[in-house]
UniProtKB/TrEMBL annotation:
SUPFAM superfamilies registered for this protein in UniProt: Ferritin-like
InterPro entries noted in UniProt: Ferritin-like (IPR012347), Ferritin-like_SF (IPR009078), Mn_catalase (IPR007760)
Pfam families on file: Mn_catalase
Protein name: Spore coat protein JC
Organism this protein belongs to: Sedimentibacter acidaminivorans
Keyword entries, A-Z: Capsid protein, Virion
Top-level taxon of the source organism: Bacteria
Family from the record: Belongs to the manganese catalase family.
């Protein structure tokens, strides 16, 4: 999220008030100027309620896998929305990072499932 917010701030650098208002950022600018403020696509602020941790490793890892896939799709959609080659490069890098995260969570899930399947002797 930090990199997307920073990309957003960089893209707004140097924009005039009139340009921001014309682009539909008047309300955002009034509240936050050009500081990154985490919002979803509808303008709702990010909150910790978006985290879905249950405290059970297998359930949490499946949730992590789903989160990485959702982030990957979001980056793909953002790539489709821009024609700036540098922005596309940044978004592609972030998308690839989500793919690697997905793979690592998948490996962790496999290890946890193997561990829980083993008979425990005490």
């Amino acid at each position: 999220m930090e990199m997307v917010a920073t990309l957003f701030k960089k893209l707004l650098e140097g924009a005039t008030r009139d340009e921001l208002v014309a682009a539909g950022f008047g309300g955002y600018y009034a509240n936050h100027e050009t500081c990154p403020f985490y919002l979803d696509g509808s303008g709702s602020p990010w909150t910790a309620t978006y985290t879905q941790a249950k405290g059970e490793p297998i359930a949490d890892l499946y949730n992590d896998l789903a989160g990485e896939q959702k982030a990957r799709v979001t980056y793909e959609n953002l790539i489709k929305l821009t024609d700036d080659p540098l922005v596309k490069d940044t978004l592609r890098w972030l998308r690839e990072r989500e793919i690697v995260h997905f793979q690592r969570f998948g490996e962790a899930l496999r290890l946890v499932e193997e561990y829980t399947a083993n008979k425990k002797f005490y």
